[in-house]
């Protein structure tokens, strides 16, 4: 029985690491796709393919229950808009910077989210959290420096904006889903449909270009839609239900490490001493900030009766996945 339990833990950990790897690789895939097609066309294709896949899964798993509830529709529409905003800024950003930088800078979401989400909590975050945030800010400066200090690059600035919008999206997920019986798959399906509708007008004139795209570009689009969005979401949902939130957060937090590894190994990117130091500081700062915030949130003396909604937010799979959907 013990051996079976250990095997289950290892299988769950492996799935979470696979999700982190897939998300980390999404930046290079998005960069490759946007080199061949306009950004908005790439986003439309990614959303449309994801929506078709999600609708198929919903149809298969319906089993006599309602496809969508009113709460799922009410939450899905605004969350679909904010998710689309994250992806449009993020995709433009990764088109103008390295995949490694994109994956590292977007991880600022980890420390930005607690700064934006002050609902249901008294007092301020502890000083070590702000120290960790300072480390992350220093890391961003080093990542932007490249081979030497110069004016910030457009792509890096856009990734900073994307991290801020994604943090706001995560907070909004908690506000829209707290206290409501919302199924993650149905919520994600609504979001993909909203994104498809938003990007269709901007992409409609370029649809012939999409139809005639080469197989390699289509492979990137399918990978972004089916693996980085649909598969990663469903796999994360499955895994989070079988492990602790802390363990899942730790394993999923390896996403920027995979982004760097994929960018260097497959994208031909390289880290200078300055960017290498920035990468190390970013990883250290985000992990430090995450651990401080988690300890602050779970401290008994700071817990209030109304924090049940926040606990639900931290465990909500959609809150972590839609970045990237990422």
How would you sum up this structure, described in words?
The chain is mainly alpha-helical and 326 residues long. The chain is built from 15 helices and no strands. It has helices at 2-36, 39-60, 70-94, 99-106, 109-116, 127-145, 154-177, 184-203, 207-211, 215-240, 245-252, 255-265, 273-298, 308-315, 317-321. The protein is globular. The chain starts with a helix and ends in a 5-residue tail after the last helix. The relative contact order is 0.22. Residues 317-326 have a biased composition (Low complexity). Pfam families: EamA. Residues 14-143, 154-287 form the EamA domain. Residues 298-314 have a biased composition (Basic and acidic residues). It is a multi-pass membrane protein.
